[in-house]
């Protein structure tokens, strides 16, 4: 099966890191395809950028002509998933919900460590809407912005551990890494904390495999029925924007089959 | 003071109807400015269109060069408000929350009557996130699409009353009209039902006047801090789209001062 | 329109201060009429006094022969509002709910600063019943009794700021002043905190203007149907009590039209 | 021990009926003292009357010079209990909460059958505030007013059974009789329904015996600390009202020791 | 009436201590019968032991041939109660729920002090399922294991007081002793804290007296209907186990009538 | 990897059916090992049997000497999972939670169709404790007992569809089959309903693969720390029971590697 992993921002290095994590998590036979929007913010650190990204992700999905069996949305706490669920016939997994769900399989309560403090209420709201907040013992920021995560990896792990310890004291038995940009740091953090650490990208890839493996997909009967036919001005946006030559085909999308397990 | 009322879809007749309702609600001295996005769907009937509209509304706000003192977002149940709260220094009111809040001032429990059944969970989620769901006795669709509301006004009022009766039986003591396209129908519905009917556009205009009147605005300390400076590709979108000549300045925006009370 | 602002205790200086705040908040054309009960406690600092006050307020309403268009009840956390909603045909606003509702228009979560710690659960219960507790990040006492608030205004502002900082740390993005006796201190507190501060009296006056402005009033269909005709011994109480000559007509009620905006 | 049972309205026949139920429930050695307010409504069917009654009950308590070991407040859904808890050093039981608590000892979910539909939200709010609503499967009115309950006892039992069946269908495994005026009907209703039926008066008497039997009483540390010393105009009200000669000592209070178990 | 008090572990000294507390709480005329399972863990400090104990308790109940009028289950936070409710025709009280319910009669919010920190989420879950968590201000461990409680009584009281102070600071107005092994320590703890302390065993005995006194028992209509007739391998377990001679009749069961009040 | 699937009752035909469903769901390379307790009820239809089964399952786990990488507990709504999580170092999945979690990946709200109506509150309680009830639109019984499910498969599918339609009307967008005995019926039901149908056994197998695939297991830090060393009488039970020769090694355990995908 082929899973499309969508980095919601336009930073290619983050797409690459998310892609690597997804490949490491994928089962033999699962092909990972990673991409990002053709326009929009370089990182998402708030509602405004989240809403732009949601539209940019939907635009990317509307114009991508490669088939895939499931979509993994690799933004943490951002809006957009429900739109993709309407747009696509294949299942859509979100790393916020997937991280929380996997954490709930592993412990009684979980906590989330994220980037900036301003993202905390946004993440809590997504978990609330997803029906997954009840067993959340806390969401805590590290004070690092999304792109700062890559600057000094050692320092990044340190502040994640510090924030994680605080949510463990508040009752968390499992920690979720609350940013796509933290992909790949789970093991280092877990080694220090002594509790399981869930990487949302890895969790979502496994859940995508699970859902596709059972032949299931999004319920189309009510909330996520396909969009009704109607006129949408300038849609898809990227076909109306001057995005530079050849952008649609390169754009950091990585179509190479993953080979990590072979 | 000047209140900008934003119709989230691109249907000019709906902007006009929302504008008329806003003007009727406004106090003497309040100027109503009504507009709509420069691109996007002609109506919003689901998550996908809602997310497109959110970006289109933010785009419209980013490029509008007329000052205003408060924004009223006239979509019901759609996403986007938090983005505008980050983007703007002036207060932002949303007709979903405003309708519910005014209803809670008038009765113990309220109900919402909306368009299609598929919008029901979306509206409930917005009310949940807003912290206003506890006293909601029910949200119910009429089966009419957004643009169908205008087709046969008599039939529209009939089906609204029918749905409203069902939520009253479920405990609602006040009814909220759950679509910007229902603006102006409150009195006809109330006359039949015998309980107060709240038009969200009217409620939001009054609340905007209230907030501005007290010199208050959005808290900028955490959730709705201004966006951090960063690179956003193709932003603002409308300046990169070929939207036709002069579109930016006309576009069904109605700058005329409201005169209903003079 | 004429708004009656009811101080729930019998302390005239507090009525005056509440009246001044209401006048400052009122729009041109809004007349503020402020009064207080004819009997009952000089301040309300608990359930017992709250229940006495509720009856005294209802008694005052039953005997007042001046017409008004809306009632603002200026006690914070006390019972009584629902009784007034049954008794009156005009809308009834309560400063507890109004402060919370306005705060929810301005930020994601709000906090309340009140007088004595013993009032904290009482306020939380009122917000719970009102369906407004979900987004409350905390209610915190200053340790000052209601009448002590007026004794040393500088110290009062200091302790309010200290308590407000604690609820901000707990996630509040907006602060509500949780006592009618704190009316007028909002700006000083806001200047120090850097987040919006809501004065419940001001908020309730604006919401009263909003509700009346739209021609709406309390739903009379279920919870707040008018009292059924029946025998009530010694009612209205004040007509059976020896309250001193002429009390019914003077009693610190201030009928003068507000002129602050002219 | 001596338990004071307070009928919140002034109807002597209801006091007598409540007293009889309390005596039937009491253990040997428990003395039942039943009384009612000296003024106020003949029945309580809404918030307005409930608030008057709360003050009238507190007034009665403030002037009663007979010692007792626990108070049972026999109104269902009305306010007032917290005031009595502040005023008295002895424990205070309320039939609303006691009925719900006993029901929760007997089944997974319970339901309440009450008088008028307008009381339903009021009862739900009391249960919510008491922290007992989660396992409530429904509250349902019979359409009979409080004083109508006594008019045609056979019809009364019939409509109670009909309403009870509806809440059983909604998941209730135990039924609470939701009005002091239904005291004594539990067995007839239970015989028809096949599920336990809880009479709140009986439950509260047993719980009062339980609390007193363990030497426990209301926590005085925070919510229910004694009222602070202060001036309260015209208090206690009954000493300032012209209530007729000797009313304070007779007033349908029944001081006779209960003898049912001897 | 005769109340069977079940210590869920096999430690006879704990049965004795629980029995003594039950006798001290019982009314004249109430006979206390205390026993423990015939097999299973010596103490319960987690889910695994809790589930074993649940089966061992049910086994004990299935083979006990002494009649009783109510069962008090003296484990705190462990599973099993619902099974006994199905198995028995008499009412079943649990000290977790009884402690919480009595605490809610005495104050606005309560807290629980228990043994090991690992039990905290387990207790919270039991209270959640029981519909009693809303007014719980906190559950806190002392760090002492169940059997360590008896080792140094003075130290035990000290650490209980320390933990209790923490939950009082968090808003608890009443403290519940959260382990059957803490039976009898309530007065010492209360004397230090100044708030009521509830011993669950004592509370459950009084509530058993209350329920039996009113002739009520578990609703058999749905959740707690009697088990359906079916084949259960090796049941009752104790009749298939080699438990030693005469174990079934002695086994630390204490049939002597309680005489504390005579 | 090897997944142990535990049928909680002793009915071998049900173990076989659950095993077949698990095998069909398993990925290539996953070995399914299915077994059942050595003693206990032939089916679980209530709390009493559930608690017996919990102990019997733990007993089976304590004595099984075959290694496995994850446990799937195939009872729906029964207790026991937390005990296995303490006992084992490998992850433990439960079909109740797994079904709900997979359903939440596919739609906004889900519903559960189960056997007897008496199981409904039990299932709701498990979902509540698991933090998964918020998005449950309803749990509904078919009226068929567990073993009756196999009697007339056509009728079984019919009544499941009928019950499913009712929860769809209540808002469910996905249906969970709420009994291990319904394993394998998902496709027939889905074909009729037009919404996704989740088989809990299949979901749990996929989630076990996901968790094991990422090298994760239960958090051992708090709720699910290993049992403390202590004396447990007659444990493991099966070694003290006379269960017949060779039972421990045959007992319907099916060790054959699954070959469905080869």
TrEMBL record, chains A, B, C, D, E, F:
<protein>
    <submittedName>
        <fullName>Aspartate/glutamate racemase family protein</fullName>
    </submittedName>
</protein>
<dbReference type="InterPro" id="IPR015942">
    <property type="entry name" value="Asp/Glu/hydantoin_racemase"/>
</dbReference>
<comment type="similarity">
    <text>Belongs to the HyuE racemase family.</text>
</comment>
<dbReference type="InterPro" id="IPR052186">
    <property type="entry name" value="Hydantoin_racemase-like"/>
</dbReference>
<dbReference type="InterPro" id="IPR053714">
    <property type="entry name" value="Iso_Racemase_Enz_sf"/>
</dbReference>
<dbReference type="Pfam" id="PF01177">
    <property type="entry name" value="Asp_Glu_race"/>
</dbReference>
